[in-house]
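Course assignment 3, question 2. Fill in each field.
Student: A.L.
Task: Predict the tertiary structure for the chain below.
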Amino acid sequence: MTELARVLYGREDIHRRVDELGRTITGDYVGREPVLISVLKGGTVFLADLMRQIALPLETHLMAISPYGGHEVSLGRVRILLDVEIDLTDRDVVLVEDIVDTGLTLSYLLSILRSRNPASLEVCTLLDRSIRRIVPLTPRYVGFDCPDHFVVGYGLDFEQRYRNLADILEITDTDALKADPDALLPHLAVPA
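Answer field:
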């Protein structure tokens, strides 16, 4: 029997890296009030921790999107189900993502946000799976470079489950997880 999952990024490493990103963003936006925008659902865990590490006045807003045609893998075009309800004109916007993969969806979202005339627009992602990039883009703020493996935890899910894992797990046997979706339950235990 093969191992189903292994810790790719532990909670301590995640916490340390989020602190570093928050300090960097604080330094880059001194004297300004950035608007942090995250996409539901995966980015919310990262957003919540990141915004507490930014020592500036800021606003947070959420978007929800759905791929056109119900494709499991995004082809880049999305429907906006929940949009930002503020005027972004002349605002400093940071799009906060849990993971950037091919870049197709992110590129589409950035084009939508650029059309709203922000003063600046940057991307902060916890995980950058640059090896799969199709669209030439580079996030300004990156937590970790992610290998080309399926990952769950810290906002990332498997069939809407396991977003609440404190660690990010690399799934080494996706077929076994599909056969037994409860297999990762022991990882939910809080250490003593």
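Instructor remarks: The domain at 12-149 is CATH 3.40.50.2020 (Rossmann fold). The chain has one domain: 12-149.
Grade: pending
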